[in-house]
Known about the structure:
The structure holds two protein chains of two kinds.
Chain A: E1 4-6, E2 11-14, E3 19-25, E4 32-38, E5 44-50, E6 55-57, E7 60-65, E8 70-75, E9 84-91, E10 100-101, E11 105-110
Chain B: E1 4-7, E2 10-13, E3 19-25, E4 31-38, E5 42-49, E6 56-57, E7 64-68, E8 74-78, E9 87-94, E10 103-104, E11 108-112
Parallel strand pairs in B: 2-11
Antiparallel strand pairs in B: 1-3, 3-8, 4-5, 4-9, 5-6, 7-8, 9-10, 9-11
Amino acid sequence: xxxxxxxxxxxxxxxxxxxxxxxxxxxxxxxxxxxxxxxxxxxxxxxxxxxxxxxxxxxxxxxxxxxxxxxxxxxxxxxxxxxxxxxxxxxxxxxxxxxxxxxxxxxxxxx
Amino acid sequence: xxxxxxxxxxxxxxxxxxxxxxxxxxxxxxxxxxxxxxxxxxxxxxxxxxxxxxxxxxxxxxxxxxxxxxxxxxxxxxxxxxxxxxxxxxxxxxxxxxxxxxxxxxxxxxxxx
Lengths: 111, 113
């Protein structure tokens, strides 16, 4: 099993739809989690941190399920501008060299 | 409000040539990182510096060296470039190395012929 796994997609959904994707991790000792978005040929940009109690930022909701070892990202009322690749990041909190970026999930919003 | 600045943005090298990729951050971050990103491979950590004066190997350090020149600057050197090092290189920084998100520069696209 990979240390961090994401469905590569692509997810192709209509504008206004709700879309969700997960990221599973194998190290149960992992302590901090993030979602980044990366546009084509651009750098990754922090979208949001993921807190144990779950957190929301506008149309975006991130959740952590420690028992099943996954984090999720929910996007409501999707916009064309949400089209990007979404990377999950897992930090096992033992060393910076252990920070792991998922390979990303491609999301395409169609008009 | 520059954040993380990388130079150059594009570079083409011949096999065997050397070059240094520069990275500077103005956020007073302690930790800095170098990644490479290849299609289908995701981001892979080359080297990182948890704090000024320290550097450590990441997942794919072979063929690279780094220097943490001061708190702001972290350079990546290819001593003898190989075609396998063709990639997009990202520098990142964070307040600390364990629990804070990283902020990325806009990348260097490097091609080795």
